[in-house]
């Protein structure tokens, strides 16, 4: 993990490998060229006030994600200046919003892989700005190298040939003794460390992360942070009647698990429950996925990873709210013992489900976990899942959908997501789609109409939420795993989508901002 330090020292005297400054896309200049934003005054002065002209000569425009490197001016102890684009500012002289700062810091951190130390001189007028820059730098510096330590053909350690992540990020102009700034940076550190742990879990190959191994990781973290943990194995699941989780895991040699993580605060007045889909590998089961759709299915436990990270982060932050996390863990494999299309499962709630498609398995494990979560009578339940390809078709690869049984709560979840910079969109639960899941054999089928499949899945889950409990469902199938190039502070591979939204919801609940 990249080290994070604060400094109020003048930029010219700081020793580092690079100084990171911000550049906006120009509405302030007649030609529309780059505009140097606050934080870089000392660098601009050393260039005789012509830094923007120099950057423009080098081809910089200030566009979001753009990186321009140039030699540091005379008198600086740092050899390199890295100008990162913030995009177009909404108004002349307007300060960049926190998400623009977060993304810019992430881009800079990625551009500085192989560097020991970098000074971030981005605009940080308040604690929220400092927290955003800290988050961006720590998330952008993420790298998953656990499986890249084998010797290459020349007998050399291949790890030596790769650039290591930025070792230290210094936030310039931030007072280490200022309580608000210090708290913002400490919060950013706790949240990003847990989010990056979620990314590690998502990126871990399924042969090393089966349900039992995931449960062991959760147990170790719970012990470290004073969180109560309970793990139900196959025998305990069978005794309790968790037919959904057992049915999905029936075809695998690796048995399923249901993990309950309970963080409690003596000051808590509210209780939140988070439920995560944790399919450590999804082959589709008997309804086998077609070729080309299996390779990234280690990420089908991203919802459980997000819930796990959020509960641990809440504990580390000492939030005045009780948070329970439920990890519904199973591996969905085809075998002679696997659940078949046409089988009927008796769920933990007592309802029976006709399984028409074994690749619609996430809703089955979530159904058992939702009912278990409901038994504790929390004030609200939020489930997180890489649930449907239909949601990806609807919203693309960077936006998750939000469904809920309460419009006010759905709006609150959306607001929390927007506040932390996670793209999300409210989705409906049309009642007419429920009829498509009627079954002649069981209480309900696990499939309904094909069109609007993401909404159908939400309607199915709603059936397993306890009466009178406020509930929201986050379908993160699009943004959970980035198969494209890195962008902003988002790496290739596991992203940790929804972690920050869940943490923000917990913070708002602790502060009494949510009903």
From TrEMBL:
Binding site for Mn(2+) 1: 282, 359, 361
Its job: Presumably involved in the processing and regular turnover of intracellular proteins. Catalyzes the removal of unsubstituted N-terminal amino acids from various peptides.
Entry EC no(s): 3.4.11.1, 3.4.11.10
Cofactor: Mn(2+)
Protein origin, superkingdom: Bacteria
Residue ranges of the TM segments: none
Single annotated GO MF: aminopeptidase activity
Classification via InterPro entries: Leucine_aapep/pepB, Macro_dom-like, Peptidase_M17_C, Peptidase_M17_leu_NH2_pept, Peptidase_M17_N
Protein name per the record: Probable cytosol aminopeptidase
Domain Cytosol aminopeptidase: 357-364
Chain sites annotated for binding Mn(2+) 2: 277, 282, 300, 361
Protein family per UniProt: Belongs to the peptidase M17 family.
């Amino acid at each position: 993990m990249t080290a994070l330090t604060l400094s109020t020292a003048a930029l010219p005297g700081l020793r580092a490998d690079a100084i990171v400054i911000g550049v906006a896309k120009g509405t302030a200049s007649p030609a529309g060229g780059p505009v140097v934003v606050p934080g870089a005054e000392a660098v601009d002065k050393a260039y005789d006030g012509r830094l923007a002209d120099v950057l423009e000569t080098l081809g910089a425009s200030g566009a979001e994600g753009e990186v321009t490197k140039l030699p540091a001016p005379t008198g600086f102890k740092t050899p390199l200046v890295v100008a990162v684009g913030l995009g177009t500012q909404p108004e002349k002289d307007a300060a960049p919003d926190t998400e623009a700062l977060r993304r810019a810091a992430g881009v800079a951190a990625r551009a500085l892989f192989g560097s020991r130390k970098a000074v971030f001189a981005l605009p940080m007028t308040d604690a929220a700005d400092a927290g955003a820059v800290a988050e961006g730098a720590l998330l952008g510096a993420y790298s998953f190298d656990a499986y890249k330590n084998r010797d290459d053909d020349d007998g050399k350690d291949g790890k030596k040939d790769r650039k290591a992540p930025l070792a230290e990020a210094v936030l310039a102009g931030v007072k280490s003794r200022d309580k608000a700034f210090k708290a913002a940076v400490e919060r950013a550190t706790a949240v990003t460390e847990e989010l990056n742990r979620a990314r590690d879990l998502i990126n871990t190959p399924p042969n090393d992360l089966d349900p039992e191994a995931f449960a062991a990781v959760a147990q170790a973290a719970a012990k470290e942070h004073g969180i109560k943990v309970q793990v139900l194995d196959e025998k305990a699941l069978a005794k309790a009647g968790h037919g959904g989780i057992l049915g999905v895991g029936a075809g695998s040699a690796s048995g399923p698990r249901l993990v309950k993580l309970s963080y409690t605060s003596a000051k808590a007045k509210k209780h939140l429950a988070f439920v995560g889909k944790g399919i450590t590998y999804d082959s589709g089961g008997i309804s086998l996925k077609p070729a080309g759709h299996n390779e990234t299915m280690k990420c089908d436990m991203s919802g459980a990873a997000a819930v796990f990270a959020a509960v641990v982060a809440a504990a580390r932050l000492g939030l005045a709210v009780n948070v329970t996390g439920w990890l519904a863990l199973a591996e969905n494999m085809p075998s002679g013992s696997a659940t078949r299309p046409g089988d009927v499962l008796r769920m933990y709630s007592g309802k029976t489900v006709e399984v028409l498609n074994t690749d619609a398995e996430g809703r089955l494990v979530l159904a058992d976990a939702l009912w278990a979560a409901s038994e504790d009578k929390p004030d609200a339940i939020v489930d997180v899942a890489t649930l449907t390809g239909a949601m990806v078709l609807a919203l693309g690869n960077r936006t998750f959908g939000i469904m809920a049984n309460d419009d006010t709560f759905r709006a609150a979840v959306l607001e929390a997501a927007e506040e932390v910079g996670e793209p999300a969109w409210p989705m409906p639960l049309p009642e007419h789609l429920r009829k498509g899941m009627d079954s002649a054999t069981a209480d309900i089928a696990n499939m309904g109409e094909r069109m609007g499949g993401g909404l159908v899945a939400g309607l199915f889950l709603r059936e397993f939420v306890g009466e009178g409990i406020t509930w929201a469902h986050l379908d993160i199938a699009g943004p959970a795993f980035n198969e494209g190039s890195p962008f902003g502070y988002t790496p290739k591979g596991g992203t940790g989508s929804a972690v920050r939204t869940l943490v923000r919801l917990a913070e708002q609940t602790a502060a009494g901002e949510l009903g």
